[in-house]
Amino acid sequence: MQSHKLELFADYFQFYLQDETAEGDLSDAWDDPAVERMLAVAPGVVGLGTARNMDVSVTLELLDSEPANGIDEFDHVVEGTLAIETGPLVVAGCTDYFPDAARFDLEPGAYRVRLSCSGLNTLSEDGLEGEDRYLVQLWLAPAIEPEVLRQHLS
Question: What does the pLDDT look like over 52-111, one tens digit per residue?
């Protein structure tokens, strides 16, 4: 397992994972169901929702297999699939300068992406401060349609 701590600017309440060479476009993927589940998918890219449009703490874990349960420890958990054709994996806020975004070497294949969110009820009244945290886990697995494993109720 590899674990990486990132601070990402979640402009528009999102950040994304992408195969560097992918040209997927999330603009049409953020429909109402995607917003509710906090995950949007387009070819070669996955958008992950956040509770704030500020800098957020993200832990990225690159795993050899599906993680042990632990879903009950989080406010919201959702899974989807990211196809990596060539790599590397790029992790960035949606308005970040792409050449400067974090990159991680991954072998080509279909990756399960699990977003687990905690601290979603800790936001200040103005939504600028909070203890929200985002755990993103990836492992090789067959492709699936996006699925909410635990829905946050605000």
Answer: 999 999 999 999 999 987 888 999 999 999 999 998 999 999 888 889 999 999 999 999
Beta bridge partner(s), residue 14: 49
What is the spatial distance between Cα 20 and Cα 88, in angstroms, rounded to a whole number?
6
User: ∠ at Cα 60 (59, 61), nearest 5°?
Assistant: 115
- CA 4, 50, 90: angle at the middle one, nearest 5? 40
Output the CA angle 83-74-39, nearest 5 degrees.
30
H helices of 1-154, in order, are 32-37
Q: What is the CA radius of gyration of the chain?
A: 14
Q: Are 142 and 121 in contact (CB under 8 A)?
A: no
Average pLDDT across the chain, whole number: 93
Q: Tell me 68's DSSP state.
A: P
Residue 154 has pLDDT above 80, yes or no: no
Rounded to whole angstroms, how far apart are CA atoms 122 and 131? 6
Nearest Cα to 113, choosing from 42, 61, 35?
A: 61
